[in-house]
Write a sequence for this structure.
């Protein structure tokens, strides 16, 4: 039996800075806000919920659902899992207070170049998302 999960990845930005979080737990490294979309939940609702859960940010704007997808397989508690990632551009104010969830130990607002260098995963998708963001400005 395979469990399928639809996941959101929120690429949070404010002008030319991007918010990345330092994950702790099963692996350690920098990532974007991400999490599962609940059954019956709208995409935008899932994005805002995950952003608030992982950063405490409430006043965000989902700018665009990107035509960028990724997927990967893993085994969790003996069960095969196929996770599909759906990417979103999300505008926030970097002056707003960040309150991290237990999943993360740190955060930073950084340039595109620094985020690209520090991200553990989703580098190719971030490059594509950055090109899309530049078209919107």
């Amino acid at each position: 039996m395979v469990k399928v999960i639809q996941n959101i990845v929120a690429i949070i930005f404010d002008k030319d800075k991007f918010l990345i979080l330092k994950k702790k737990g099963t692996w350690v490294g920098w990532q974007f806000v991400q999490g599962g979309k609940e059954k019956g939940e709208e995409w935008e609702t899932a994005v805002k919920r995950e952003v608030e859960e992982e950063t405490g940010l409430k006043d965000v704007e989902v700018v665009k659902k990107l035509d960028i997808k990724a997927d990967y397989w893993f085994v969790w508690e003996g069960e095969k899992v196929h996770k599909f990632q759906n990417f979103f551009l999300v505008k926030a104010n970097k002056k707003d207070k960040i309150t991290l969830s237990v999943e993360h130990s740190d955060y930073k607002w950084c340039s595109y170049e620094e985020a690209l260098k520090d991200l553990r995963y989703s580098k190719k998708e971030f490059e594509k998302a950055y090109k899309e963001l530049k078209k919107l400005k």
In short: The two ends are 45 Å apart (CA to CA). The chain has one domain: 2-136. Helices lie at 43-55, 112-118, 123-136. The CA atoms of residues 62 and 77 lie 33 Å apart.
